[in-house]
């Protein structure tokens, strides 16, 4: 009898485990229009990964089912037109249901079978109530303009803040609590005062930057599948980091270090991938150095946990091209000839600054940029020389370009031997490609738009003067 009972228990346990495998998310939203709806999870705030689709009937019933468990994170249901309908959490409980209506999907949401989603929507419903009350009082305040209405507004805002902090404290171990904590600003202390009696804003900024990641759990890979990690990375780099290569490298290493310490491979992979990807198209002069550093240290150094051999090889090739061309490096030698087929060297050009303009005579963007470059060169004729290098096209087209635009005063170069691979040797992926060199032919800027040359030279001159003081 005991054996039979044990076998029955084992069977029931196995049946229950089998029945709960995969995922089954069922919902009814009264008033929802029929059509194909998509289940997807966040990957940053501007990307989504589709996991399933469901057809909604005329009663607003939908069902997402699958034999394999979904990766945990913050999910969304997208309408047929791909706009977002609602968000919910997919955690360990992947068999749950919900009921609501289109009058207020969040406000009327009821969940069964997912405690974390109950918390997730209970919080939103409470905040929705506060927000509705606040909107009403603010509307009244515009009419009355009395102290009582202003006091009510302050009270409601204080209640919202107190509820948030209490909720996060009580639910700190849950995914809902981690999402709310990650998405909210840190509490700032009262800053010390400067000698003039004013609050020390610099101290406050440094405190904010130092504690910016305090409420973010780098060990929880689920946060990769939310919009909050990407938003925080962008804010940290764009608003809290000085836009210079050394500062950006230090900030990137700091964040990646936190991810490595957290131990989540998906978190590590996302941080390394995102920061390296952003650095590949920099917005700052010399920013290419950030990409080279991150690529060498994390991809080529074997620290990046999720990648493939082809990606590593592509990055290796990219680094090999970019590294000799970084700001501060001497410009590689150019084997060129002028229109009389007389060879010359880059070092033959004597000037405080040299602008190397790689172009295609038939390139529309190159032709649009040429008049602006001509204006610039005429303005700085005493300190700037232009070396215009035709990377494609026939010698006849090259000479016609020089004549048509009236830029004979520039130094012009052409590789009549056709041995120079401008793409690999000078990173001329697109034309025009502009380098700015100093008097020693060291690179001080690259990939610069012609329209930015004027302001860059002025800025560089000012910085040079300051550095000599």
Automatic annotation (TrEMBL):
Top-level taxon of the source organism: Bacteria
Keywords noted in UniProt: Isomerase, Signal
GO molecular function: isomerase activity
InterPro entries: DUF4369, DUF5106, Thioredoxin-like_fold, Thioredoxin-like_sf, Thioredoxin_domain, Thioredoxin_ResA/DsbE_sf
One Pfam family recorded for the sequence: DUF4369
Keyword Signal set for record: yes
PROSITE patterns: THIOREDOXIN_2
Alphabetical list of CDD domains matching this protein: TlpA_like_family
Matches recorded under PANTHER family: PROTEIN DIPZ, THIOL:DISULFIDE INTERCHANGE PROTEIN DSBE
Protein name as annotated: Thiol-disulfide isomerase/thioredoxin
